[in-house]
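Late entry, zinc ion complex.
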Amino acid sequence: MGQEALIVIDVQNDFCPGGALAVVDGDKILPVVNDLIGSFEHVILTQDWHPDRHSSFASVHKGREPFQTIQMSYGEQTLWPDHCVQGSGGAAFHPALKWTKAELIVRKGFRNDIDSYSAFFENDRATPTGLAGYLRERGIGTLTLVGLATDFCVAYSVLDAARLGFDVTVRLDGCRAIDLGGSMQAMTERMREAGATLA
Ligand code: VGL
Ligand code: ZN
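Prediction complete; structure with ligand written out below:
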């Protein structure tokens, strides 16, 4: 069990209204997320952080459109509008996010040829980001997750955390979904099956 941490997934401008990959009401989570940041001793943030011609962008695949799915060497990959380009305003944290207390910021998706939804592994579900080792070394075994988007980066982080043996709770009032082709219902079921608590 050990210590507890709050993990805040991708609360960045591009996932909020007006952003390149806006999640409906993405900015509405900010009061809940900021309250949780205030109440947790340990806070970790993730930041989606892509090179400017990242392989998850539809714009680099001739004849493809955002939200289509393609086969990559590591499996199926959804194509996205260009988003969260390293150093861009869209990749910055939402201005209302009270992020200063964070002890660690995990950047992900920075390798050109592979996407990374999860805070723990890239989309091959095998290449680690280092977060599990960090948490274990610090004696943190219990995690609460919030952020964007529920059915992609939050959900894959939750599945990996549960698989790695962390005790995981998702605060759904601190999350909003993209909901692509029923992904919200499918990922909710998978998170439950994995043993996560959905609160
Ligand atoms: C995300 C799609 C692409 C997310 C990141 O944060 O959920 N979704 N990149
Ligand atoms: Zn991304």
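The first strand starts at residue 3 and ends at 9. Will revisit in the morning.
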